[in-house]
Amino acid sequence: MMMQKVKPHGLEKLNLEPSLEPSLEPSLDSDFFSQEILNKIKTDISQAWPESLNLNDRDIDNDFLVREIKKLLKIKDAVLISHYYVDPALQALSEQTEGLVGDSLQMAKFGKSHAAKNLIICGVRFMGETAKILSPEKNVFVPTLKAECSLDLSCPSDLFKKFKAANPDRTAVVYVNTSAEIKALADWCVTSSNALQIIQYLSDQGEKLIFGPDKYLGAYLKKETRADMLLWQGFCVVHEEFKSAGLRSLKQAYPEAAILVHPESPEDVLEMANCVGSTAKLLEASKKLDNPVFIVATENGIFYKMQQASPHKKFISAPTGGRGATCRSCAHCPWMGMNNLKNLYECLLAIPDNSSNFNTLEALTQPYEIKIPEEIIQKAALSLNRMIHFSQ
Predict the structure, then answer these.
(1) Hey, how many other C-beta atoms are within 10 angstroms of the C-beta on 275?
(2) Helix/strand/coil for 70
(3) Are strands 275-276 and 229-231 parallel, antiparallel or unpaired?
(4) Is residue 287 part of a domain?
């Protein structure tokens, strides 16, 4: 049965301007973050919202699509790997077909270990790229190559390369939410689940660092580890929107609630948290803590797994605007929302089966297949594998 898609409220009043104004700190990195980057993010996000809401696809037979997708996954020797933030229908389908629902690194590692030759990544583009870097011998597809990430978009490789060149004495550490080109420029890659440990290790070794692209995650890491670290000024459009004033009022309305916050959020929101951590850590906290109510400051797609694990508990999106408990939060990534049953079905149809010549059908797979130059794969694999080996 089709799960009801979680729709953001109040989109008719959505105003992107305030949330995308930069709050640049007076530091060396400021010169590399420009209004042009902000304009690119604004353009892409405005184009993503209509497709994210599936405004033109309301008459689709979802039961038919689910049945056909299950058949095609077997025929095409493919496995479905979904991020916590995509439509609950896709998460459920991953579970039903022995795929995976997880964070970006879990997704890539699962794809590497799985026997299927075709990996279907429901998430955003950089997640497909990460899977391809770790499994270059496999074919990696996404339901739409238009599903971007504001953190990725906020860190163009040409500008980050200049940032790195301007600080040659510093080790370059990048968040996994970046393009293959950025990972290829980095010395280390980190996720929200291992960033504290890696940054602390490097700092203890006496290394000076540059970190990108998330300024909020970077500030959190810098505060916790006291590392000598220059920050790129990127941000996640979902997490930057969470507001501490509204969160305080919501906490007053639900005094029994625990507050779970992803470290991509602003510092004043982090300070109110009962738990700060990766998506997986927040999910685990929602299981272990005894609170009957949870206010969650991350993308609301995670509610599918939280409610699945704790059906007796109540989960509320942290406020992103308005005042008090009446705030109606978006807490929704439009690019994650671009993944749906229809384009997943179309993606699978385009993949050649075992009897087909893959090269002759490249035109069919072009809108869905992740392609990365071999040189970039080899360089990007160094920073990713360094992280993986550290965390083992």
Answers:
(1) 17
(2) helix
(3) unpaired
(4) yes
Out of 83-97, 273-287, 329-343, pick the least confident: 329-343
Burial of 254 (0-12, 13-18, 19+ CB in 10 A): middle
Q: Average pLDDT in the 69-75 region?
A: 97
CA 148, 174, 176, 221 dihedral sign is negative
Query: Would 116 be classed as within a structural domain?
Result: no
Backbone angles phi, psi at 258, to 5 degrees: -95, 145
Angle between helices 104-113 and 125-134 (to 10 degrees): 40
Distance, in Å, from the CA atom of 322 to the CA atom of 264, rounded to the nearest integer, reads 21
d(CA 164, CA 160): 6
48 vs 197: CA distance, rounded Å: 35
**Of 367, 335, 342, the residue nearest 47 (C-alpha):** 335
DSSP letter for 189, please.
Answer: E
Taking the C-alpha atoms of residue 270 and residue 216, their distance in angstroms, rounded to an integer, is: 10
pLDDT (tens digit per residue) in 74-112: 999 999 999 999 999 999 999 999 999 999 889 989 999
The tokens for 132 are 């391809």
Which structure tokens are listed for 185? 């420029």
Sheet of 188-190: strand order equals 188-190, 171-175, 209-212, 229-231
Task: For 203-228, give one letter per residue: b (16+ CB within 10 A) or e.
Answer: beeebebbbbbbbbbbbbbbeebebe
Lowest mean pLDDT among 48-52, 203-207, 221-225: 48-52
- Which residues have CB under 8 Å from 176's CB, separation 6+? 104, 105, 126, 130, 189, 190, 191
CATH number for 317: 3.40.50.10800
For 254, the domain range is 239-326
Which tens digit of pLDDT belongs to each residue from 245-263? Answer: 989 999 999 999 999 999 9
Q: Is residue 317 part of a domain?
A: yes
- Overall domain count for the chain: 1
Residue type, 121: I
**What whole-number distance in Å separates Cα of residue 231 and Cα of residue 13?**
33
